[in-house]
TrEMBL record:
InterPro entries assigned to the protein according to its UniProt record, in alphabetical order: C-type_lectin-like (IPR001304), C-type_lectin-like/link_sf (IPR016186), C-type_Lectin_Domain_Fam1 (IPR052309), CTDL_fold (IPR016187), NKR-like_CTLD (IPR033992)
Lineage of the species this protein comes from: Eukaryota, Metazoa, Chordata, Craniata, Vertebrata
C-type lectin domain boundaries: 19-125
Gene Ontology molecular functions: carbohydrate binding; transmembrane signaling receptor activity
GO CC aspect terms: plasma membrane
Protein's cellular compartments: Membrane
Protein's recorded name: C-type lectin domain-containing protein
Pfam families recorded: Lectin_C
Keywords: Disulfide bond, Glycoprotein, Lectin
Any one GO biological process: signal transduction
Topological category with respect to the lipid bilayer: Single-pass membrane protein
Organism in which the protein naturally occurs: Chrysemys picta bellii
Gene for this chain: LOC101942728
Length: 147
């Protein structure tokens, strides 16, 4: 799929949902956590990282039983987002269901630990591509990496 359709540039790939400055893919197919991560990576995206209450509220309204980008390397270690940043429980905790579970599943507005080999839907996210206002006026596309 392409971001381009004729002369128009879309901020998100086809079938992805834009919310604010991000694009989200809510999968219909089911995969393990690791296969979900690989799929998102093939689109230049990561599994979902919830960064604030507004984004959390949006995800709550859209998703149930989806893998998100939280995991931990060992029992007792903290939860880490796919990009390597530590998860803060200020926004939401990860409820531990079984001690050995190392991946996080988002359901009913909360995150739960789960076995990484379980097959669930997943959410990918990436930054939306945006044209600068001056470039829009001139009819040229400005990519984020060209700013």
């Amino acid at each position: 799929m392409s971001l381009f359709q004729g002369d128009k540039c879309r901020p998100c790939p086809e079938s992805w949902i834009q919310h604010g400055e991000k694009c989200y893919h809510f999968s219909k197919e089911m995969k393990t956590w690791h296969k979900s991560k690989e799929y998102c990576s093939s689109w230049g995206s990561l599994l979902l990282k919830i960064e604030n209450k507004e984004e959390l509220d949006f995800i709550k309204s859209q998703a149930s039983f989806h893998w998100i980008g939280l995991s931990r390397t060992a029992i007792g270690h903290g939860w880490v987002w796919q990009d390597g940043t530590a998860h803060s429980t200020d926004l939401f905790p990860v409820k531990i269901q079984e001690p050995g579970e190392k991946c996080a599943l988002f359901k009913a507005g909360e995150a739960f630990s789960h076995n990484c080999t379980g097959q669930y839907r997943y959410i990918c996210e990436k930054r939306a591509t945006q044209k600068k206002a001056t470039e829009r006026a001139q009819g040229r596309l400005q990519y984020p990496w060209q700013s």
